[in-house]
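To: structure subgroup
Subject: Chain for Friday's discussion

All,

I'm putting the inputs and outputs inline so they're searchable in the archive.
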Amino acid sequence: MTSKALDTAEKCVQRADAFVLTGQSLHDVGDEWAVVCYFYASYHLMRAAFIGDTIFDSVARLSAVDSRFTLADRFVAMHRGRKGDRERKPGVNDIVSKLYPQISFEYLELHQWSVNVRYNEGLEPSASIADAKLYYERIRSAFDAGTLKAK
């Protein structure tokens, strides 16, 4: 069996909801891995936002934001871009930063905190599980309000 990226906004939101439930369970016992769950819940909401954002229907609108963006980026799954044929291709972090500045700080902080938990020594003293949940909730509120649409 091969795995494939989620291809509908509904599937992405369902996955986000599953991560939040696990995150809350971990949060309740003070486990820093809750941060990873809150990040991945946010990640799936970003992917759902991309799928529903009409900017990905227009090459001209995308190019006006960033010349590297393509219609296919609607379904990008990697966090950070990698080298393509000639230049670095964008990842979710790049797209969030350019299209959704109102939540980019929270999203990028969650990403870094998640990396710290997964690969480094854990949460830094300036980060907390409660802050991670708050950042996820801000992202979820923006998503639910329909404000994650490129201008």
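Points worth raising on Friday:
The first helix runs from residue 9 to 28.
The mean pLDDT is 92.

D.
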